[in-house]
Amino acid sequence: MRTQWILVGVAGLAMALLLSSFLGIFEKRVDYNTQIKPLLNKNCIICHGGVKKAAGFSLLFKQEALAPAKSGKLAIVPGDADASEMIRRLTLTDPDERMPLDHPALKPDEIDLLRKWIDQGAEWGDHWAYQPVQKPAVPAIGTFLSRLGISANDETDWATNEIDNFILDKLKQDGLKPSPEADRATLIRRVSLDLTGLPPTEKEVADFLGDKSPDAYEKVVDRLLKSPAYGERWTGMWLDLARYADTKGYERDPGRKIWRYRDWLIKAFNQDKPFDQFTIEQLAGDLLPDPTDDQLIATGFHRNTMTNDEGGTQDEEFRTAAVIDRVNTTWDVFGGTTFACIQCHSHPYDPFTHDEYYKYLAFFNNTRDEDVTSDTPTLRFYKPADSLKLVGLQHYIASTLRNPQQAKASINQFTHLVRTVEPKINSHDFDQYVNASLLDAKYFGFQDKGSCRIKNVTLTGRPRLLLKWGTKATNATVTLHQDKLDGPVLAQFPTPKPGKDTVQMILLPPIQGRHSLYLSLNSPEKPKDWVQIKWVAFVAVLPGQPQNAIGEKSKVLLDLLNTDTEQTPIMLDGSGDLARQTHVFERGNWMVKGKQVTPDVPKSFPAMDPNQPKNRLGLARWMVSREHPLTARVAVNRFWEQLFGTGIVETVEDMGTQGIQPTHQELLDYLAVEFMETDQWSVKKLLKRMVMSATYRQQSNASPELIAKDPYNKLLARGPRVRLSSEAVHDQALAVSGLLSRKLYGPSVMPMQPDGIWQSPYDGESWKQSTGEDLHRRALYTYWKRTAPYPSMVTFDSPSREFCQLRRLRTNTPLQALVTLNDPVYVEAAQNLADFMQAHGSSPERQIQAGFRRVMLRDLHQKKLAVLLRLYQNTEQYYRQKPGEAENLLDRLGFDCKKVSPELAALTVTANTMLNLDEVITKE
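-> structure tokens emitted (924 positions)
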């Protein structure tokens, strides 16, 4: 009997131990990312982080946090909060020792949370956005039978794709239900504005309303995705990210012809270029094998950086500024991370160290642009006759060199030279000036008895000197010396005839190795006249051409180099003599160089594939690899924000630890994986998935109770209601008034704008108003001057585009109403809309209804109709009393003055008011 009791006692004890162990497994763990990291960021890391490591203690990285501080004590002892110095210091009462120093003490529950976390082992964790993207399970909705389609259920009946499952799951947790689908007129207007940036036509609305098939809405979506306007709409979004402008920025802000990059974007979106390839071509199209013109033009993404043409500036300073801008923009656009913070110091909150910034910068530091006035390197576009010369030169090389590989290499070399004028040495890199100067801080110039050095030039196999130069001096001679100013003479040649700058070819003897070269000038006739050199290049002899003379084919090469061409800035890398070393900038100062670094990516991210080159191409491929945690998430979040008004992560610009937490993290990750794997980076498929969801199709109306529970619609229990972008407001006005031109591509245009906007004291350019259909093109084609952007765009929250703009913060100011009521573009649109209204109604009431249907695709409510009718009647009476005012209002190009009437003037004012209504400039 006693033995039985002993056995029972042992069994009970075992069960108790087992139960306590079992319950321990399910003890609620403290989560580092959501509970501890925000607490540390708020209270501790300002003194113990990447910027400042007070007492030698940092909480930014795990290895730093668990290491002994300067005192030798351990701030965090995993598993033992009582032995952890951090807990002791947090609980002291002495203000000189209690942490946080000189700040309010942590609350008891916050200290208890930290204590519990340490006792549980002080498990660290990477921020959610820096973890690999894993595909979460789709939440189940409805009932088992409804999921099989056997029975009806509100949830399964409402949902149309997996997006809705995630949304419903979150709504149920908050005790909310989704809203009904918007009416068809509202829905087609919403999706048309979202996918194409243009409202639908009345016929398109009528067709949709009359289509009773179950896939009627899907057919609308497919049509919109195939529309050429689709590419224009999404290009407009991307131009903010690419900081696209038609000028260079800074003081004088002169023009820059880079519109071909905009055309590339439109084509890329319309062709649905996969987003991974879209990324690679913009970041490194020039480094792809045998890059096409389009791939070179794509690199204009990073040639939109500003260039400072002001006299007295230092080109290297602004070249460096452009490289830094490229690093920051790349992380902003594709990484959604504040990587720019570590230019001066390690990141205060995210796992990036100071030297990692410059390792990343090293990927971009060899680009050939150097803040020169000519904006080189550029891709040159020849007229047909000159293109035939180039083709003839290529055929000549192919016929001269029988070895196909040698022929291809030579053709590529000389074609590259003719199309890009690279590789070359810009004259601002000359040094050891004697009686010489950098003229206007731009190009080297010297006078009689002047000289300079061109340092460290490889001359092996390059016995031809090309130089672009010009002068007013006559009978002057330049001598080229080897290694020193009085060294061996390699060549002596006369300066060009006075006139425009020209490219000349100088014969050099065959020389091996790397040498410094010295140029000296003898100009006895006009010793004070400057001889200016813009650039020099040392090149090989064309195959089959004489070594001791300039052959006929070499003259063709010179003709092509001297031909005036259209050009667009592109990215190219320098190698050999033109390769640069990269150093850490101490405290971010470009003039204080620290240790030398080589290209690499942050250690907190997956390493680059060792088989990929350590250049921009390898970097771009790393960024779109499946292992990269950010690129797909950031892209999905940005496209979501464009449709819903707010991203799943509201801070589109910052997915880091200081960004706002995602409202639906599992949905974001699900869409990111689908984007990469199922959709193969297809933007059109991603957008279709979003707009086909029942979540997107909900009506935007909300009850007071719903607004009280979710005022900012973060849970998405209703559809999006968002003020239109500046471009959409502009384009809609032109479209509904019948003025909009559907012309695609080409140089930027100058539509009407108020007088006195361009008042550039250092630049003689003026706003030359376009004519014909260029006067009424879509907003993305409008000429963009950084120091004086198109005023109606800026008033509606467009950026100046001096830097990358990731998110437009919407405002609502009286200035916006003044624009839509008074800007000449909107006045003209109102005039044309009034013409339409007059022709489509037999009475003022019917005319106003016709105009509103044209704009909003539905009838006007009687109360609003009464208000607009009263406005019409009062205005008509005013113009009857003052007929001259009607003529002034209706005065426009091509208008028949005989048609001036008080009725038409009143309709114009009514139409103008209509275009200014909140519901018109809002997507509902």
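The CA atoms of residues 241 and 333 lie 6 Å apart.
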